[in-house]
Specification:
five-stranded mixed beta sheet; alpha/beta; 10 helices
Length: about 325
C-alpha cells in the first residue's frame, strides 16, 4: 500500500496504538516516546485527512465514525510495513548468522511455568540479539490481531500442518498418595475408579467422565469428583494430602512421584483428555517464515525431547527419575 506524501508510518502507528489503548499515555508507554510526540503525530494525521479521528474529553477518548472507518486501513498499512521491515532484517540476520529481533509468544499457564520457563534462558543465551516477550495464558489468543509470533497450544498428536509444529509430548497419569491407597485400596481396572474419590484440574462437570485406552481398547468411566480446580498444582497438593486419585499431566507431579509422595495408578492404561497429548507451536504463515521464530521452534523441539515425559516406571511399577 502506498501512503499520501503528507502521511507517514509514524502517524499511522500512533493512531493505531491510541485506538488500541484508548489512551495517549498508554500508547506513549507502548511506543516508548513521550505523550506530546504521540499527540502531535495523531494531530498531524487528522490535519492531513481533514477529519477528526478521536472524540476527546477529560475522562476518556473514543474513536469517531471517521476514526472507525480509517482504522482498518491504518492497521493493515502498519502491519504490512512492519512485515516488510521484518523480512528485510530477517534476510540480513540469516546471511550474517546472527539472529535478532523480538519474539512475542504465548503458552498455557501451567505448562509454561513448569516446562517452558526452564528452556527459554538457554535460547536467549545462545542468541544475544533476540528478545522474548512471553505471555502465559489459557486464553486462545488471536495471533494476527494481537501480534503473536508463536502460540504454544495443547493439541492432539494428529494436529500438524502449515503453521502447526509439534514441539513436546505430554503424558497424562493417574496418581494417588500411599496413605490414600492403603485406606481406600488400589484400582486394578478402570471400572474400579467409580468407587474412588477422583480429582482433575478443570471445572466442567462433563470432565467427570475419564477416558482410558490400552492397545485397541477404550473405556469411559464416570467418576466422583469432590474437588475441582483450574490450577494443577492445587490438585497435586490435594493428592499428596490423601484426598483422592488425581488425573494430571506428568510434568506437574514428577517430583512427587520420584519421592514416593505419589504413586501411579493403572499405569498400563493411557488417560485421554480434552487437552490432548502434545504441545504444538502455531504461527501465522508470514511469522513462521522468520528465521528467529524457526530457530526458537527448532530449539524447543530439541530441548524438550524428554522434558515433558514422565519418569520411567520399572517392572515393579516404582516411579524413578531418569538417569
Amino acid at each position: 500500500m502506498t501512503l499520501a506524501a503528507d502521511i507517514s508510518i509514524n502517524m499511522l502507528t500512533a493512531f493505531v496504538q491510541v485506538a488500541k489503548d484508548l489512551s495517549v499515555s498508554r500508547a506513549a508507554l507502548q511506543m516508548r516516546v513521550s505523550k506530546s510526540v504521540v499527540s502531535k503525530r495523531v494531530a498531524r494525521l487528522e490535519s492531513a485527512l481533514g477529519a477528526t479521528l478521536f472524540s476527546r474529553s477529560t475522562r476518556k477518548i473514543a474513536l469517531t465514525p471517521a476514526g472507525e472507518l480509517y482504522l482498518d486501513y491504518a492497521r493493515r498499512t502498519v502491519d504490512d510495513s512492519r512485515a516488510s521491515m521484518e523480512q528485510v532484517r530477517d534476510l540480513n540476520a540469516a546471511a550474517s548468522g546472527k539472529l535478532s529481533g523480538q519474539i512475542r509468544m504465548t503458552a498455557p499457564v501451567s505448562w509454561g511455568q513448569n516446562v517452558l520457563a526452564r528452556c527459554l534462558p538457554e535460547f536467549l543465551r545462545q542468541h544475544a540479539g533476540v528478545e522474548i516477550e512471553l505471555q502465559l495464558t489459557d486464553r486462545m489468543m488471536d495471533l494476527a490481531h494481537e501480534g503473536v509470533d508463536i502460540a504454544l497450544r495443547w493439541s492432539s498428536t494428529s494436529a500438524r500442518g502449515p503453521g502447526a509444529v509439534p514441539v513436546a509430548a505430554v503424558q497424562w497419569v493417574i496418581v494417588a498418595s500411599p496413605q490414600y491407597l492403603r485406606r481406600s485400596g488400589t484400582p486394578r481396572k478402570p471400572q474400579d475408579l467409580e468407587k474412588h474419590s477422583c480429582m482433575c484440574y478443570w471445572r466442567e462437570r462433563t470432565d467427570d467422565a475419564w477416558v482410558l485406552t490400552q492397545a485397541d481398547a477404550q473405556t469411559e468411566v464416570f467418576v466422583r469428583s469432590r474437588y475441582h480446580a483450574n490450577n494443577p498444582e492445587s490438585v497435586v497438593s490435594a493428592a499428596v494430602a490423601g484426598l483422592g486419585l488425581a488425573l494430571l499431566p506428568a510434568y506437574v507431579c514428577g517430583d512427587q512421584l520420584a519421592s514416593g509422595k505419589l504413586r501411579p495408578v493403572l499405569a498400563n492404561w493411557t488417560p485421554q483428555t480434552k487437552f490432548g497429548t502434545q504441545i504444538t507451536a502455531v504461527s501465522t504463515p508470514e511469522r513462521a517464515r522468520l528465521a528467529r521464530n524457526r530457530a526458537l521452534i527448532g530449539f524447543l523441539q530439541t530441548a524438550m525431547g524428554g522434558e515433558t515425559k514422565p519418569p520411567h516406571i520399572n517392572a515393579r511399577r516404582e516411579w524413578r527419575q531418569k538417569p
